[in-house]
């Protein structure tokens, strides 16, 4: 979308790091990794950690590490239902105001849950109104269904079952009206490449349906497991290279944000390695830069 004050170079796709990618380390740790590894900015996941909810604290991190906030992820996860209060309407508006205060130009939000009836009924109108009143883009993210094999299948065989049947099979959606936001239609979207894997969806076809409204990419990977994996791009089965090529070809001007799961990292060096591999993938396939040796990590610590 439009250039933000944080844009490092006009015309280059900016590559950010989601603060969720360093969990169980904290928000400040994400800023530190981003600065050390050379990410262009941060996507702030707002959740239970007090620092993630405080504009003043995050602004202090921006100054300390000289890393801007590119996007804010609204507190719409199951684990963040009580963050900023129980009202999802108010929380989405507050997310936009937080993005404005931090100089970010994008808010990422999930479709409403089915039990959030009032919120779901007014969600398309609220998104449109927020965008009309602000320069911040509200990019609605593709999600995935709750697959029956999550409960009844053997965990290790879920990806093979999905491949055999060509889709998720018997499944329920927790989202209203759908886990695919293009079924409703919004001005702007976030494409998540781990969610497409779990949903058994074709990310290239989904990107085409999103069209010029595709404003934000969650760069990750997945193998089609029944649970959301968020692998390092290239470690799964998603056409990550092809998606990146399609974005470059289309003149994509939004953000690409690394949103990977590093909870299995044993040390900070291990985590930095995973984050560095993801950044290198993005630099090669989005920015056209040749792969370079990963930066030397700081002293390794257990995490």
TrEMBL record:
<keyword id="KW-0413">Isomerase</keyword>
<protein>
    <submittedName>
        <fullName>Sugar phosphate isomerase/epimerase</fullName>
    </submittedName>
</protein>
<feature type="domain" description="Xylose isomerase-like TIM barrel">
    <location>
        <begin position="31"/>
        <end position="143"/>
    </location>
</feature>
<dbReference type="InterPro" id="IPR036237">
    <property type="entry name" value="Xyl_isomerase-like_sf"/>
</dbReference>
<dbReference type="GO" id="GO:0016853">
    <property type="term" value="F:isomerase activity"/>
</dbReference>
<dbReference type="InterPro" id="IPR013022">
    <property type="entry name" value="Xyl_isomerase-like_TIM-brl"/>
</dbReference>
<dbReference type="InterPro" id="IPR050312">
    <property type="entry name" value="IolE/XylAMocC-like"/>
</dbReference>
<dbReference type="Pfam" id="PF01261">
    <property type="entry name" value="AP_endonuc_2"/>
</dbReference>
<feature type="domain" description="Xylose isomerase-like TIM barrel">
    <location>
        <begin position="190"/>
        <end position="272"/>
    </location>
</feature>
């Amino acid at each position: 979308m439009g250039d933000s004050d944080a844009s490092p170079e006009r015309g280059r796709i900016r590559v950010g790091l989601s603060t969720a990618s360093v969990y169980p380390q904290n928000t400040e740790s994400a800023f530190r990794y981003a600065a050390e590894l050379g990410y262009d900015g941060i996507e702030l996941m707002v959740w239970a950690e007090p620092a993630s909810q405080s504009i003043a604290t995050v602004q202090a991190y921006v100054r300390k590490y000289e890393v801007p906030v590119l996007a804010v992820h609204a507190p719409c996860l199951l684990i963040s239902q009580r963050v900023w209060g129980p009202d999802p309407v108010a929380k989405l508006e507050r997310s936009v105001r937080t993005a404005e205060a931090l100089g970010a130009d994008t808010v990422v939000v999930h479709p409403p849950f089915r039990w959030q009836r009032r919120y779901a009924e007014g969600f398309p109108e609220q998104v449109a109104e927020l965008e009309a009143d602000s320069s911040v883009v509200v990019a609605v993210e593709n999600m995935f269904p709750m697959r029956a094999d999550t409960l009844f299948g053997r965990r290790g065989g879920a990806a093979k079952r999905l491949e055999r049947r060509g889709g998720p099979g018997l499944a329920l959606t927790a989202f209203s009206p759908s886990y695919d936001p293009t079924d409703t239609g919004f001005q702007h979207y976030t494409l998540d490449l781990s969610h497409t894997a779990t949903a058994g969806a074709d990310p290239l076809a989904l990107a085409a349906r999103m069209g010029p409204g595709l404003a934000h990419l969650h760069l990750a990977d997945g193998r089609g497991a029944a649970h959301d994996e968020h692998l390092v791009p290239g470690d799964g089965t998603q056409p990550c290279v092809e998606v990146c090529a399609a974005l470059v070809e289309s003149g994509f001007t939004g953000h690409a944000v690394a949103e990977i799961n590093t909870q299995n990292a044993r040390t900070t060096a291990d985590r930095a390695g995973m984050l560095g591999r993801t950044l290198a993938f993005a630099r090669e396939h989005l920015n056209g830069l040749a792969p370079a040796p990963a930066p030397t990590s700081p002293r390794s610590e257990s995490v």
